[in-house]
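User: Show me an example of a complex going from sequences to structure tokens.

Assistant: Sure. Here are the input components:
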Amino acid sequence: METAVGTRPFAHRSEAEFAQILDFYGIRWEYEATAFPLSHHRDGRVASRFAPDFYLPEINLWVELTTIRQTLMRQKRRKLRRFTALYPDLRIKLLGANDIKALMWKYQRSARGVVGPSGSTTPPRRREERVGEVAA
Amino acid sequence: MSSARSNNPHDDIDEVLIDEAAIQARVKELGAEIASAYGGGEPLVLVSVLKGSLIFVADLMRAIPGNVVIDLMEVSSYGGGNTESSGTVRILKDLSGTIEGRDVVIVEDIIDTGLTLNYLMGYLGGKSPRSIRIVTLLNKPARRLVDLKVDWTGFEIPDKFVVGYGLDFGETYRNLRYVGVLKRELYASLLGES
């Protein structure tokens, strides 16, 4: 089962929660709007891509949420370093579990199920594929 | 494991992050800095964003030499008691007076994501003030999502869960005279840690 805001499905509850927060404050967003090539094969085909979770067009900011395992967080950080090296003019922010917890504290809402693997609405295999697909 | 707050709010504080003397000294400096940024003319309008900035604005306005007026605003917070999380931000208390043609300073207790302030800047900007600037007691730039020009900052603070001097957790601790870090066991369950 996937979590939805309006008609948009999200891979993780933290993403749905984040989308709701943006909606609440009237910040326009796009979900996984663009997949940026990160590396290429010798023949020019794209070897890996990175699709940040959110793009906020009014403030020109890309946002990636990671609330699951530390190993995946490390992978994402590597990807982000590659992303910023390749696309230095694009602004991107990585929100980790602590950032989501801080949002939950701020709005005094329970983070249970929003942070961590229990919040995932994507089957584990598909999740790994998604991460692998965009790994640098 | 989660635990209940104690009868003495000081007992729930793990660490005093900014003590009363440091706050008062900085507020005095902020008052002088704000005053020097404006000439004479009509009194400066301080817009306090309730409820967190109430204590700060009370001290700040007394630290500003010259004429100031205050007005109060309250906006609904995401997930707040009377709001649906799927709704949109609402003005719970609007300004009492007009700010058209006036110099306005928005007074915040803390700025982190900047989402509320971004909304307020748009809302107040629509009322045609001569200028809008921002003063905040606490600033957490590491949490920022929306870039905003913060004109005056009392203290930049680390990513800790703080209460006191107007800042609350579950509507309590606002009356502490200092800014302190709340004991983690009091909100561990909220963070899904117990």
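The lines above are the inputs; the final block is the predicted structure for all two components together. Chain A touches chain B at residues 5, 20-27, 56, 59, 61, 63, 93, 98-99, 101-116 (CB under 8 Å).
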